[in-house]
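Revision sheet: structure tokens.
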Amino acid sequence: MKSAPNTERGFSLITFAFLLPALIAGSGISVDLGRIYVTKTELQQYADAAAIDAAFELDGTSAGITDAYNKALVGPGTTATRNRWNFDTSNVTLGGLNSRNCLSAPGSLIP
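Predicted:
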């Protein structure tokens, strides 16, 4: 008994060609969302430090309120650091495990 000819030849190649742009777009969106989250966290820490610095200026007088207001507008002095993460770095080190040898040491991050 002869089998019917295979009419689905090349289907996986066509499917991959259509899904590749979606995979690349999804990867780009996930990287962008990660950067947004880090930036949001840094901005929140900066605002918290500005509020704490302004609160230290409050001394119960109207001059203290004015000083606190001005301090909050200017931002924190030495209590905040700017741009703690450089996204242009190429290596990531996690407790002695370098990003270059992550694939050669599977399971080494598991306690």
